[in-house]
Write a structure and sequence with these properties.
Number of helices: 4
Strand order of the largest sheet: 3-7-6-5-4
Order of helices and strands: EEHEHHEEEEHE
Structural class: alpha+beta
Helix content: 25-40%
Shape: elongated
Oligomer: single chain
Distance between the termini: 17 Å
Largest sheet: 5 strands, antiparallel
Number of domains: 1
């Protein structure tokens, strides 16, 4: 685990230097696979039905992507009940859409979100490789 720790300069959007902070390099493909398993399991647990194997789960796990759309995510889940599994460790919420899809928000340690979208057969968009490939870093404050 310590091999994934590093240091990075922290700057404001306007470029002001805020110092160096510890970062953690995340394995995005692994987080994607884990997110998909969580969403499938929570669907079964929360809705009482097993998700059919031919349904697709697309997860967004990269922090920079998620934080860019935080306002949209907030609007989607505003007023939705949160299911707190362990305070300050894990909570989730979901939204059922009219066309059969559902959107799941998983939040770990009150800081790291994963969004999963369930699609019926043939409805999932083409996978965007940049969502799953490579390594992303998060800043540990």
């Amino acid at each position: 685990m310590t091999r994934r720790l590093g240091k990075a300069e922290l700057r404001t959007p306007s470029g002001l230097y805020l110092g160096r902070r510890t970062t953690y390099k995340m394995d995005v493909p692994r987080l994607d696979r884990t997110g998909r398993r969580y969403v499938r399991g929570l669907h079964s647990y929360a809705l009482g039905t097993r998700l059919p194997e031919d349904w697709s789960v697309l997860c967004m796990v990269k922090p920079d992507f998620l934080h860019a759309y935080v306002a949209h995510v907030g609007l989607l889940f505003n007023g939705r009940p949160r299911v707190v599994v362990q305070s300050e460790v894990f909570w989730y919420s979901w939204l059922q859409l009219d066309d059969g899809r559902s959107v799941w928000l998983l939040v770990f340690f009150d800081a790291y979100p994963i969004i999963g979208v369930l699609y019926p057969p043939g409805a999932a968009p083409a996978d965007v490789a940049s969502r799953r490939d490579g390594v992303a870093s998060i800043i540990l404050l």
